[in-house]
Write a sequence for this structure.
């Protein structure tokens, strides 16, 4: 009897809505291609010492499409760390890598799907360099991975933050208060920017744009003069203070471990109240943004990521990560994808926000739209994408 073809999958790093949708997408599409699937538990930890995995099948993945979290569990504090800081490589322990190789061989895996953010994909990249057949699937609510327009989980987090702003809006208006909403976004302000636009924020503070307390207070007072007695401020947890410092919840507990951010909202609220005399309150949204059901968009993206990750294994395109460049799903070498993607401070979203009068706390009030010719869209990440774009253009030309 021919030996079963088998694929492994794991979810690593911080969780986000849509991980289960990827797992389901992988299982269904792998089965279609004649593969069995095993899921490793607690991220990379399940790969070695002790190896822990479960078979994944129709039975245990049915109904998980709409569930938050991950049925496989995850960790971002384990033994597998391939970065020191942002984009700063740290070598994995060779013994661990050898252990992973043995697991992959013993389970006769055709490929291993690693679902993770920049840190977790940096681990996958080192696996690839060591001959382990991996493919990557990008995941993070922060949306800060390059080569993919969006990661799943992002819009679910934005939905949560927008809902919070909607709720804060009515109470802020009723009490003529300033409300500061602190959202996640360690290195990039995507959640703050998108939720700020979607939820009618008046001030958006992100790590990419330097801001000052003066400018933020001025924005509050300018609204007051126009008869708007309340203001909504959205701030990314990673937005640096004018001194250049980030606000931490606590100091680093272990070397190479990322610090816990949190508290910038409170600092800002305190200063606004002091400078404007307006009563100011803070809400820190925290992990609420990481939980709950994925939005429809995230389910669609996550499901496609799962199916296309299987395709990469079938095509033996190891060391690649699935990427979404609307409307196309393509792939890029993982090494090119683990760069940070931050908000383009001159991009369309920031320009539109400024045109609406939203303040970024930098004292810039209105910026004329900059002309961006259509052909300046990002270059396609790989040959398949380039070919697909050419096909699409040709089709549009004929229509
Ligand atoms: O990277 C996603 C993220 O949600 C960041 O925005 C946040 O700083 C971090 O994870 C929190 O991680 P943890 O749950 O380990 O504290």
């Amino acid at each position: 009897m021919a030996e079963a073809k088998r694929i492994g999958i794991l979810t690593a790093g911080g969780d986000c809505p849509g991980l289960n949708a990827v797992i389901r997408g992988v299982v269904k599409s792998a089965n279609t291609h004649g593969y069995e699937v095993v899921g490793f538990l607690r991220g990379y930890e399940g790969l070695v010492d002790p190896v822990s995995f479960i078979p994944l099948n129709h039975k245990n993945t049915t109904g998980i499409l709409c569930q938050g979290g991950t049925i496989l569990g995850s960790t971002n504090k384990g033994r597998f760390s391939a970065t020191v800081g942002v984009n700063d490589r740290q070598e994995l322990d060779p013994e661990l890598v050898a252990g992973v190789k043995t697991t992959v061989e013993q389970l006769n895996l055709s490929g291993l799907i690693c679902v993770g953010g920049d840190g977790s994909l940096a681990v996958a990249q080192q696996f690839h360099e060591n001959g382990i057949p991996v493919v990557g699937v990008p995941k993070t609510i922060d949306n800060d991975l390059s080569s993919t327009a969006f990661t799943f989980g992002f819009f679910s987090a934005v939905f949560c933050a927008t809902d919070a702003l909607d709720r804060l809006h009515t109470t802020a208006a009723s009490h003529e208060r300033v409300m500061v909403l602190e959202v996640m976004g360690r290195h990039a302000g995507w959640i703050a920017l998108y939720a700020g636009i979607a939820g009618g924020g008046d001030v958006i503070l992100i790590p990419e744009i330097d801001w000052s307390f003066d400018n933020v207070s001025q924005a509050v007072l300018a609204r007051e003069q126009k008869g708007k007695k309340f203001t909504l401020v959205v701030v990314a947890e990673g937005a640096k203070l004018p001194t250049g410092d980030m606000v931490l919840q606590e100091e680093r507990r272990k070397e190479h471990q990322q610090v816990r951010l949190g508290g910038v909202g409170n600092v800002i609220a305190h200063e606004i109240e002091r400078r404007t005399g307006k009563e100011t309150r803070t809400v820190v949204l925290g992990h609420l943004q990481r939980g709950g059901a994925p939005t429809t968009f995230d389910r669609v993206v996550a499901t496609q990521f799962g199916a296309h990750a299987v395709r990469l294994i079938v095509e033996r395109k190891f060391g690649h990560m699935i990427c979404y460049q609307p409307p196309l799903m393509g792939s890029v070498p993982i090494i090119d994808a683990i760069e940070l993607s931050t908000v383009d401070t001159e991009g369309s979203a920031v320009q539109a926000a400024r045109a609406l009068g939203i303040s970024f706390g930098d004292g810039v009030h209105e910026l004329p739209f900059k002309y961006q010719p259509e052909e300046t869209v990002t270059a396609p990440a790989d040959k398949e994408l380039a070919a697909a774009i050419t096909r699409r253009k040709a089709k549009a030309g004929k229509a």
